[in-house]
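Appendix C reproduces, verbatim, an entry submitted by the partner laboratory led by Prof. M.T., so that reviewers can inspect both the input and the predicted structure.
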Amino acid sequence: MAALALLSSCIKDEPLNQECDITSAWLEGDQYAVNFYQPSQMRQDNISTSEKEIVFTVKSLLSLPDMLPVHFDLTPGATMVPANGSEQNFKNGPVTYTVTSEDGAWSRQYAVVFKEASLPSNKFSFEHVETVAGINWNYYHDFYELDAQGNRLNFWASGNPGAIMTKSNSTAETQPTFSTEDGYVGKGVCMNTQSAGPLGEWIGKPIAAGNLFIGRFVVEKVLQDALKTTEFGRPFNRVPTRVTGYYKYKPGDEFTILDENKKKVTVPGRVDEASIYAVFYRNKDSNGNPVLLYGDDVQTNPHIVRKAQVDALPPTDEWARFEMWFEGGDADPQVLAQLGYSMTLVFSSSKDGAMFEGAVGSTLYVDEVEVFFEEADQTE
C-alpha cells in the first residue's frame, strides 16, 4: 500500500505539458483527393512552432466541398477549438483554431486556409516585410510576397528564428537577415554573418550566416540537425531559364572554420564569399512520395532538373548587377501542370555558412531580383 501511495503521489506531482502546438494537419478520404493536384498535398507535416498559418493548396475553391474535416496532431495533452476533425467551412476564408496546452496556461492560434495555387510575380523587390516577435524578447523580419489579388504569400524564409535563440532583447535590425531602406529601389534585404555567442560556441555552431531562400525554416531542428532546418522550394508551374538582380557585398575580416573537435579556428588568408543560386526540382519521387531538399542536398539531390549559380560576387560598395542561367534537362509538361516541380532561390552572406564556415561581418545586400521563365506555349 505504501508503494502504491508513493506511485500515486509521483503521478500527481508530474507537471502538465505547457506546449500548445499543431505538428501535423491532414484530410482523410479519397473523396477529397480530387480537389488536390497531388495526394501528398492533403497532408502537412513537421509544422514548425514559428508557423501561424497552415495552407492547403487546391485546384479550385469553387469545386471545394462546403464543409471539410481537417485532422490534427497536437503536442501531448493539448486541446483545440474548433474540435479536432470537425467539419468546417473553408470556402469563405481561413478558419482560426485555438490550441490550449495541457496545463491550461498557454494557448496559440493557427489560421488554416485552403487556397488555389497562386504564385507571386516573377520580380522580387522585397518591399513586403513583417516584424515578428520571437523568443527571449527578440524580434526579426519576415519577408513575404503578394499574389495578383493582393493576398499574402509566405514565400520566403531565413535562419532568423534559429539565430535569435542565442540572443535576448534584440531588434529586427540586429538579426542576420533584415530589411533595409537602402535598397537598389526602395527597400532591400541585408544579410550579414554574425557570431552565435557563447551558446553557439558551446554547441559547435559558432556563426550564423545571413540568408534568405524560397522555402521553410524548421526551428525545432536547430539543436538536432542544423542542415535539416532549411526546407528548400515551393511548387512552380513554369520552367525557369535565368535570374537577374542587384547586389552589394563586403567580406568579413577573419575567416573561421570548425576543427575536428567542432571548435572555431581561424584560416589566415582565406576570404569569405557570398552565394546566390537557384534550383528547380521534381517534388515527388517515382512512387508519388514528397521530395524536399535540405541543406545537405540542395545542390546534389537526384531529383534536381535544373540549377543556376552566380560564378562570382566580387566585393563592391556600389550596387552591381548579377545574372545566372539555368542549366539542366527539360520538364515534363503534364507533371508541370500538376505542380510537380518546385524551385528555390537562395542568398547567403557566407557561401559555406551552412557548415558554420565564414567570416563574422560578411555582408550581402540584394534587391530587384527577377526570374525569367520559358514561354507558356512551351510548357502547356
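Residues 2-13 form the longest helix (12 residues). Additional entries are available on request from the coordinating office.
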